[in-house]
């Protein structure tokens, strides 16, 4: 082991560390002691480190604690992992990690950090002021830290499945090989789907109002938020505010599953076994995966719009609506508005990722000193702002899509193509006409994110999803 001391010296050092962590001097380390010790020693997040230290693998006699021998065995395995990780970062294999190697490692994960930020990270570990990190400094800094591989840094900055604001144009999550092998990926997808279902149901009245205003609002009727709500309630009662929500929830599962599988296949087809993609590569793979998922489930999008806009008694249910569309308009009706919908993926996903990366890098450079973990509030804020910006960019295409989906069901509405409809809206209502219904769309963002976060965290606990 390069730069490592002998076994006797190592055991002596680990013994001193054990004594320092064993605050009640009972010869055993429990979760509480490890948490306190990690917090005192600055070993990263105490909760994640504690959960990893007191684990079935480390606790040989399964008594919920570690004695000295178990602790030493755990640290031996830990050092081996850390040495492999040290070598992977030490690109020129000179026994030291310098600033440029830190920047290269972050860049490989799609995270661009400044020279100043890389120096801050280096200073947090560099005890001898050489502006490099040797094996001993690296080992002592991360020995009780939850870092497992370089991708763990990226874990904190993934687009979180928790952010469901009713639009499914986002780039899918990245899952590590460990998450795929342990089955955590599908548990996270299930937790995300449940969070999305509850979130969409909670904000369904605002979503229906958005669709209602997209189709019916104009310069002449001056339909606003209160007027739209009043009109819907007068026509069908309070329950009518949830029209179309059933199929909106129903399409979460197939769309998420198709998008995830397509994303993984596209990644392998284009970039082989590369574990982590750069931002531009994620955009390409995510856009193609989104287009694939939308192509397959698009008939459900048309049904959702028709059911959302239906009058009382117009359809008996989902199957009746589908049958009537097929009978009266033919199978092509199920793909009305498909082109603007697919085109909308590009500005949405591109701006969503670009804004997210910009906000993330700004936070890293200004506020992150020795940790890659930004905390949940920063993640939620970055995700919410970036998704909102993506929506603003793609909203005109979303409005054209909705109007094309609804054309045949609205009496007297012209049957126009995408470009024809765009020209018609601009000539009749101007640019503002392309943003009808955007106010209720913005109103639902914060409650949707809040609801989905709370449900997601509870579902993770129920499904036994572990956080690193």
TrEMBL record:
<keyword id="KW-0496">Mitochondrion</keyword>
<feature type="region of interest" description="Disordered">
    <location>
        <begin position="39"/>
        <end position="63"/>
    </location>
</feature>
<keyword id="KW-0812">Transmembrane</keyword>
<comment type="similarity">
    <text>Belongs to the mitochondrial carrier (TC 2.A.29) family.</text>
</comment>
<feature type="repeat" description="Solcar">
    <location>
        <begin position="374"/>
        <end position="462"/>
    </location>
</feature>
<dbReference type="InterPro" id="IPR023395">
    <property type="entry name" value="MCP_dom_sf"/>
</dbReference>
<feature type="domain" description="EF-hand">
    <location>
        <begin position="77"/>
        <end position="112"/>
    </location>
</feature>
<dbReference type="InterPro" id="IPR018247">
    <property type="entry name" value="EF_Hand_1_Ca_BS"/>
</dbReference>
<keyword id="KW-0050">Antiport</keyword>
<comment type="function">
    <text>Electroneutral antiporter that mediates the transport of adenine nucleotides through the inner mitochondrial membrane. Originally identified as an ATP-magnesium/inorganic phosphate antiporter, it also acts as a broad specificity adenyl nucleotide antiporter. By regulating the mitochondrial matrix adenine nucleotide pool could adapt to changing cellular energetic demands and indirectly regulate adenine nucleotide-dependent metabolic pathways. Also acts as a regulator of mitochondrial calcium uptake and can probably transport trace amounts of other divalent metal cations in complex with ATP.</text>
</comment>
<feature type="repeat" description="Solcar">
    <location>
        <begin position="183"/>
        <end position="269"/>
    </location>
</feature>
<keyword id="KW-0813">Transport</keyword>
<dbReference type="Pfam" id="PF00153">
    <property type="entry name" value="Mito_carr"/>
</dbReference>
<dbReference type="InterPro" id="IPR002048">
    <property type="entry name" value="EF_hand_dom"/>
</dbReference>
<feature type="domain" description="EF-hand">
    <location>
        <begin position="9"/>
        <end position="44"/>
    </location>
</feature>
<keyword id="KW-0479">Metal-binding</keyword>
<feature type="repeat" description="Solcar">
    <location>
        <begin position="277"/>
        <end position="362"/>
    </location>
</feature>
<feature type="domain" description="EF-hand">
    <location>
        <begin position="113"/>
        <end position="148"/>
    </location>
</feature>
<protein>
    <recommendedName>
        <fullName>Mitochondrial adenyl nucleotide antiporter SLC25A23</fullName>
    </recommendedName>
</protein>
<keyword id="KW-0999">Mitochondrion inner membrane</keyword>
<dbReference type="GO" id="GO:0015297">
    <property type="term" value="F:antiporter activity"/>
</dbReference>
<keyword id="KW-1133">Transmembrane helix</keyword>
<dbReference type="GO" id="GO:0005743">
    <property type="term" value="C:mitochondrial inner membrane"/>
</dbReference>
<dbReference type="GO" id="GO:0051503">
    <property type="term" value="P:adenine nucleotide transport"/>
</dbReference>
<dbReference type="Pfam" id="PF13499">
    <property type="entry name" value="EF-hand_7"/>
</dbReference>
<dbReference type="GO" id="GO:0005509">
    <property type="term" value="F:calcium ion binding"/>
</dbReference>
<keyword id="KW-0677">Repeat</keyword>
<dbReference type="InterPro" id="IPR018108">
    <property type="entry name" value="MCP_transmembrane"/>
</dbReference>
<keyword id="KW-0472">Membrane</keyword>
<comment type="subunit">
    <text>Interacts with MCU. Interacts with MICU1.</text>
</comment>
<dbReference type="InterPro" id="IPR002067">
    <property type="entry name" value="MCP"/>
</dbReference>
<dbReference type="InterPro" id="IPR011992">
    <property type="entry name" value="EF-hand-dom_pair"/>
</dbReference>
<keyword id="KW-0106">Calcium</keyword>
């Amino acid at each position: 082991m390069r730069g490592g001391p002998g076994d006797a010296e190592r055991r002596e050092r680990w013994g001193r560390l054990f004594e320092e962590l064993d605050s009640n001097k009972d010869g055993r380390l429990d979760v509480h002691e490890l948490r306190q010790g990690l917090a005192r020693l600055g070993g990263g997040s105490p909760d994640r480190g504690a959960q990893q230290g007191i684990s079935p693998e480390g606790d040989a006699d399964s008594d919920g604690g570690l004695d000295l021998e178990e602790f030493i065995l755990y640290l031996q395995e830990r050092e081996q992992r850390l040495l492999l990780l040290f070598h992977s970062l030490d690109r020129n294999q000179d026994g030291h990690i310098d600033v440029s190697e830190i920047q290269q490692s972050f860049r490989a994960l799609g995270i661009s950090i400044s020279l100043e930020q890389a120096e801050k990270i280096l200073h947090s570990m560099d005890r001898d002021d050489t502006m490099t990190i040797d094996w001993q400094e690296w080992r002592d800094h991360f020995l009780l830290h939850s870092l497992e591989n370089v991708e763990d840094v990226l874990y904190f900055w993934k687009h979180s499945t928790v952010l469901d604001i009713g639009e499914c144009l986002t780039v899918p999550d990245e899952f590590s090989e460990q998450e795929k092998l342990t089955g955590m990926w599908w548990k996270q997808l299930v937790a995300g789907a449940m969070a999305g279902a509850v979130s969409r149901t909670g904000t369904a009245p605002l979503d229906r109002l958005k669709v209602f205003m997209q189709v019916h609002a104009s310069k002449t009727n001056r339909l606003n938020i209160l007027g739209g709500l009043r009109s819907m309630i007068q026509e069908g009662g309070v329950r009518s505010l949830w029209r179309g929500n059933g199929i909106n929830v129903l399409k979460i599962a197939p769309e998420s599953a198709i998008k995830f599988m397509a994303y993984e296949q596209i990644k392998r087809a284009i970039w082989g076994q590369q574990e982590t993609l750069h931002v531009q590569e994620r955009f390409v793979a995510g856009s193609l995966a989104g287009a694939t998922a939308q192509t397959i489930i698009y008939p459900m999008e048309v049904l959702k719009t028709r059911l959302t806009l239906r009058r009382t008694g117009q359809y008996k249910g989902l199957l009746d609506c589908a049958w009537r569309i097929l009978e009266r308009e033919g199978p092509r009706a199920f793909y009305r508005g498909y082109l603007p919908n697919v085109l909308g993926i590009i500005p949405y996903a591109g701006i969503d990722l670009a804004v997210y990366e910009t906000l993330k890098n700004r936070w890293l450079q200004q506020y992150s000193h020795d940790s890659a973990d930004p905390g949940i509030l920063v993640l939620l804020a970055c995700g919410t702002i970036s998704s909102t910006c993506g929506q603003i960019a793609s909203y005109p295409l979303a409005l054209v899509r909705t109007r094309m989906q609804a054309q045949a069901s609205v009496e007297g509405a012209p049957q126009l193509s995408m470009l024809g409809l765009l020209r018609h809206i601009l000539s009749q209502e101007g640019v503002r006409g392309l943003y009808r219904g955007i106010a209720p769309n913005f109103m639902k963002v914060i409650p949707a994110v809040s609801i989905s976060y709370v449900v997601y965290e509870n579902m993770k606990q129920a499904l036994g999803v572990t956080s690193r």
